[in-house]
Specification:
Layout: E1 7-14, E2 18-23, E3 29-34, E4 38-43, E5 48-54, E6 60-66, E7 71-76, E8 80-85, E9 91-96, E10 102-107, E11 113-118, E12 122-127, E13 133-139, E14 145-150, E15 157-162, E16 166-171, E17 179-182, E18 188-193, E19 201-206, E20 210-215, E21 220-226, E22 232-237, E23 243-248, E24 253-257, E25 263-267, E26 274-279, E27 285-290, E28 293-299, E29 306-309, E30 314-319, E31 322-327, E32 348-352, E33 359-362, E34 368-373, E35 376-381, E36 387-392, E37 395-398, E38 404-409, E39 412-417, E40 420-425, E41 433-435, E42 440-444, E43 447-451, E44 458-462, E45 468-471, E46 477-481, E47 486-491, H1 493-501, E48 506-507, E49 510-511, E50 515-521, E51 525-531, E52 534-539, E53 543-548, E54 551-557, E55 563-568, E56 573-577, E57 583-587, H2 590-600, H3 604-610, H4 616-628, H5 632-638, H6 642-652, H7 655-665, H8 668-681, H9 684-694, H10 697-707, H11 710-722, H12 726-736, H13 739-748, H14 752-762, H15 767-780, H16 784-789, H17 803-816, H18 836-845, H19 883-886, H20 901-911, H21 921-926, H22 954-974, H23 978-985, ...
Helix pairs in contact: 2-3, 2-4, 4-5, 5-6, 6-7, 7-8, 8-9, 9-10, 10-11, 11-12, 12-13, 13-14, 14-15, 17-18
Biased composition (Polar residues): 897-907
GO molecular function: structural molecule activity
Subcellular location: Cytoplasmic vesicle, COPI-coated vesicle membrane; Golgi apparatus membrane
Length: 1031
């Protein structure tokens, strides 16, 4: 068909009978009113139903958007007009507009008015600013008024179609019709105005199955279009294309050329009768309503007929049939153009075209402009728009030589030279499209074929379905754009010349070496242009990119669809236009493009010459390009961005440059990156400095331990503690063996339970102090029972077997701790294989270690009577210590514990044991608490080793036990409390369960008790333990 009207389906929705459709101008919405009383809004981009209005139970025959108010207004067979907010779906107003079915609604484009027509044969004007007051009633039709339409060129006039077989034209403010158009043999169902400024036409359709075009100035019928087999229910002039649309009850929609009135196409989607058509100004979309659903189609291409001559800076476009021109050189020198902003231009009218322009393009030298459309082409001079040549053609393309061009007429391709036909040929596989450039491209069902302009011989056939082709100015590179991607090929004229003399190089598909494939890019090219060896294009994501040497560089992101026009090199600006003929520009340095082109050709001498001309703000972009090409050293010299320079220096392993930049930027991440590079290079001093500056204490610990740097490890502990990195501080001090510092760190961070267990493991002498802190913390948290349930090992030694051994081991390890040389590592037992307690006992037995118990200042005061109680084992035999051992630094004593008198009396019974016999004194001495106050015998000069501990006689032990008995009894009598009363409830006799009841076997020195007494004592201990846990 002469008009290249590609019809694409955008929306297809099944529904009840559709009576009216309307398209939103700003949102991708379509309003559909239905015969069942509902209205729907669909998103035609996503094909989803987004809003629904349940209006009434009778047909809704009309619905329109009122965009400036965010309203949707509907009219139905219950004679009511309803107004809804289409965002909130709230009904804002309703009123009875007519006394019969309402057939049509139109919205005034500028005034707060709507017009309604009805079966009551009237038309009414309503003002929503005046609370929907009735402004005027138009009477004159003698049958149903089916549709009304406002004149887009004169908003005060409108036309109406009626079943009285007439079309009337009205004026707002006048009660009588201006004139009546008669010509239909049956009722008129629909009417619409032509929106172009060149023709005062309107169109109507009726039950006589005819479509009539009227000249409303001459009041005559210009043309009658026949073709429908049933009533014509809707008609429309397309606002952008030279198309008249008509829908009929025969289920078809016909497309007629508005200039030639030729039937261009017939659409039938099988949805039964067509009732309504809606078009939108500025869009090629058309909405159709049928018995069984709604369709949205897109006609033709939205790319405007626009062309630019880059050498002269002139842009020519077609607005309908009018040719207009703008000149970029007329811009003021002082006028600074900003990227993406509209260029202020003065439009010059050049004249009217005799055909409807579908494509418009300049010749390569810019002297001529060709317009193609309606199955014809016309070549004009670019300056005066004088007709130079014309002919019949469906497509027109220029050669690289402006004097040569080709046209396609059906499957025939004609080549012209100096406006005279030179050659005609028919490709073997037919011709669907042709493309110009250095070679003549022909698309057919078998793929893309390239032909020589002079001889029309086949150069190369490629199995590809191109959408369009773009040739570079020198004819060496070509971009083949398809529906999914684009390919860049290099043309090899030398191979073609060689094939002309050697026929063996020519195959069935042409010359194989004619093209070299360079790249395949998975992007959809919308429009493109070559500048040197750089291909600039806009893609489907509305981005401006350019391709050079296999790399894609994004220039800008666009907020709407735009089309490339050309590049003006002396201004370093790229120009684009949209379908509204708005021109925008973006800066793109020619020097950058030349430099990149030289690099791709590996012409570094030229690149070095061009580099000084590149602006400083463009240097970093050039450096990124060099980096992608693998020239990192050159990129390092070119870039001015410190971040980029640092990354390049890292990749090149340049420690000096990296260090200088890291000092300048003082960035933690940069120091860490440099430390990794220095580690690979083996520069441990630099690694230490980098990690220290980055305060990466975790990595520093690894470095210090790997290099055995004790000073560094100590520094890490101090600095990390100051910086609040307590985990690192704890670890570094632990590695150094500074256990007291580790304990302080735990206490400082209120990790008291962890401190208690740490002390239990490594510093047993600190257990008492830590447990007291733990108790105090629990009391502050109102956890009194939990605090009382904590057992302090210094008070409940019987609950912690081997506690004294841990005290000894702590002192033993401190005494024998020393620094070992690295060479001794093979001979040293690792810590995990050692048993410190066993080592201590062995050293003690071998008299290599002597334990120095610690003094205990145990001032436990009763809160009631402030009586002091002493729970130390007073009867323990003292241990003699040699003078060499008495000067050792003793372990700090545990903190004292305060208990009530009642607790003291009970616990004294639980902990106190009978005085040991002579045979068990040594075991008792090993389990002695370090909190006791030992009696140190004065050393003698004759003994080098300490004598064994003295064993008291049994009689002395018995005397000591008898001395303890009355004292303990006196304490119990004076300190009877509620706690003892509760103990008595458990049948515990505090007077009987006393150390005085224990008899000493004189011969063996062992404790002697009856079986019953032993059972009672064991029972008493369990009950007291349970009681202490409960409290």
């Amino acid at each position: 068909m002469p008009l290249r009207l590609d019809v694409k389906r955008k929306l297809s929705v099944r529904s009840d009978r559709v009576k009216c459709v309307d398209i939103h101008p700003n949102e991708p919405w379509i309003l559909v009113t239905l015969y069942n009383g509902h209205a729907h809004i669909y998103n035609h981009d996503t094909q989803q139903l987004i809003k629904t209005f349940e209006i009434c139970d009778v047909p809704v025959r009309s619905g329109k958007f009122i965009v400036r108010k965010n309203w949707a207004v509907t009219a139905s067979d219950d004679m009511l007009v309803r107004v809804y907010n289409y965002n909130t779906l709230e009904r804002l107003h309703q009123f009875e507009a007519h006394s019969d079915y309402i057939r049509s609604i139109v919205v005034h484009p500028t005034q707060p008015y709507i017009l309604t027509s009805s079966d009551d044969m009237t038309i009414k004007l309503w003002d929503w600013d005046a609370k929907w007051a009735l402004k005027q009633t138009f009477e004159g039709h003698i049958h149903y008024v089916m549709q009304i339409a406002i004149n887009p060129k004169d908003n005060n006039t409108f036309a109406s179609a009626s079943l009285d077989r007439t079309v009337k034209v009205w004026q707002l403010g006048s009660t009588q019709a201006n004139f009546t158009l008669e010509g239909h043999e049956k009722g008129v169902n629909c009417v619409d105005y032509y929106s172009g400024g060149d023709k005062p036409y309107l169109v109507s359709g009726g039950d006589d199955r005819l479509v009539k075009i009227w000249d409303y100035q001459n009041k005559t019928c210009v043309q009658t279009l026949e073709g429908h087999s049933q009533n014509v229910g809707c008609v429309a002039f397309h606002p952008e294309l030279p198309i008249i649309l008509s829908g009929s009850e025969d289920g078809t929609v016909k497309l007629w050329h508005s200039n030639t009135y030729r039937l261009e196409s017939t659409l039938n989607y099988g949805l039964e009768r067509c009732w309504t058509i809606a078009c939108l100004k500025g869009s090629n979309n058309v909405a159709l309503g049928y018995d069984e659903g709604t369709m949205m189609i897109k006609l033709g291409r939205e790319e405007p007929a626009m062309s630019m001559d880059a050498s002269t800076g002139k842009i020519v476009w077609a607005k309908h049939c009018e040719i207009q021109q703008v000149n970029l050189k007329q811009l003021n020198i002082d006028q600074q153009l900003k990227d993406g902003e509209k260029v202020p231009l003065n439009v010059k009218e050049m004249g009217s075209c005799e055909i409807y322009p579908q494509t418009l393009s300049h010749s390569p030298n810019g002297r001529f402009v060709v317009v193609c459309g309606d199955g014809e082409y016309i070549i004009y001079t670019a300056i005066t728009l004088r007709n130079k040549s014309y002919g019949s053609a469906m497509e027109f393309v220029w050669s690289q030589d402006s004097s040569e061009y080709a046209v396609r007429d059906g499957n025939m391709v004609k080549i012209f030279k100096n406006f005279k036909e030179k050659k005609t040929f028919k490709p073997e596989a037919g011709a669907e499209n042709i493309f110009g450039g250095s070679l003549l491209g022909v698309r057919s069902y078998s793929g893309l074929s390239f032909y020589d302009w002079e001889t029309t011989t086949l150069i190369r056939r490629i199995e590809i379905a191109p959408k369009t082709l773009y040739w570079s100015q020198n004819g060496e590179l070509v971009c083949i754009a398809t529906e999914e991607s684009y390919y860049v090929l290099r043309y090899n004229p030398q191979a073609v010349a060689a094939a002309t003399t050697n026929k063996e190089l020519v195959s069935e598909d042409g010359i194989e070496d004619a093209f070299d494939a360079l790249s395949e890019i998975p992007e959809i090219v919308r429009t493109g242009v070559w500048v040197g060896d750089c291909f600039m294009y806009t893609n489907s994501l509305n981005r401006i990119n350019y391709y050079v040497g296999g790399e894609i560089v994004t220039i800008s992101h666009l907020d709407r669809v735009m089309y490339l026009l050309g590049y003006v090199s002396n201004e370093n600006r790229l120009y684009l236009g949209d379908k509204e003929m708005s021109i925008v520009s973006f800066e793109l340095s020619l020097a950058v493009l030349e430099y990149q082109t030289a690099v791709m050709r590996k012409d570094f001498e030229t690149a070095d010459q061009v580099l000084p001309t590149i602006a400083k703000e463009q240097r970093t972009r050039v450096a990124h390009f060099l980096e992608k090409q693998g020239y990192r050293q050159q990129a390092l010299a070119v870039t001015l961005d410190n971040e980029h320079k640092f990354d390049l220096a890292l990749q090149l392993g340049n420690l000096t440059v990296c260090y200088e930049l890291a000092v300048e930027m003082e960035n933690e991440q940069k120091w860490l990156q440099l430390s990794e590079l220095a580690t690979k290079a083996g520069d441990l001093n630099l690694v230490q400095e980098c990690l220290t500056r980055a305060q990466s204490f975790g990595s520093l610990i690894l470095l210090a331990s790997a290099s055995s740097n004790k000073q560094l490890m100590s520094t890490i502990g101090e600095q990390s503690r100051k910086n609040g990195q307590f985990n690192i501080a704890f670890l570094s001090n632990f590695v150094l063996g500074k256990l007291d510092t580790c304990l302080d760190i735990l206490i400082e961070n209120q990790r008291i339970p962890e401190a208690a267990f740490f002390a239990r493991t490594y510093l047993p002498s600190q257990i008492g102090r830590i447990v007291n802190l733990w108790r105090e913390k629990l009391k502050q948290m109102n956890m009194e029972r939990s605090a009382q349930a904590l057992a302090n090992p210094t008070d409940y030694e019987n609950l912690f077997p081997g506690l004294v051994d841990t005290y000894k081991t702590e002192q033993f390890l401190k005494e024998e701790a020393k620094t070992h040389l690295a060479r001794d590592f093979p001979t040293i037992h690792p810590n995990w294989e050692r048993n410190p307690v066993a080592e201590m006992k062995e050293a003690e037995e071998n008299e290599e270690f002597f334990y120095h118990p610690v003094q205990l200042k145990k001032d436990t005061k009763d809160e009631n009577d402030d009586d002091n109680e002493n729970f130390s084992d007073a009867n323990e035999s003292p241990k003699q210590v040699p003078p060499s051992q008495t000067k050792q630094t003793p372990i700090d004593p545990p903190a004292t514990t305060h208990k009530t008198s009642t607790e003291s009396s009970v616990i004294s019974k639980l902990i106190s044991a009978a005085p040991p016999s002579a045979t068990s004194s040594s075991d008792r001495a090993r389990s002695q608490s370090p909190m006791t106050k030992p009696v140190i015998l004065p050393p003698t000069t004759k003994e080098k080793t300490p004598p064994p501990p003295s064993v008291p006689a049994p009689s002395a032990i018995s005397k000591a036990a008898s001395d303890i008995k009355p004292t303990a009894a006196a304490v119990r009598k004076t300190s009877l409390s509620d706690l003892e009363k509760e103990l008595q409830e458990f049948d515990i006799d505090v007077d009987k369960d006393d150390v005085s009841d224990v008899e000493i076997e004189p011969s063996t020195g062992a404790n002697k008790k009856s079986a019953d007494e032993d059972e009672d004592l064991q029972f008493d201990d369990d009950d007291v333990d349970e009681f202490l846990r409960d409290t």
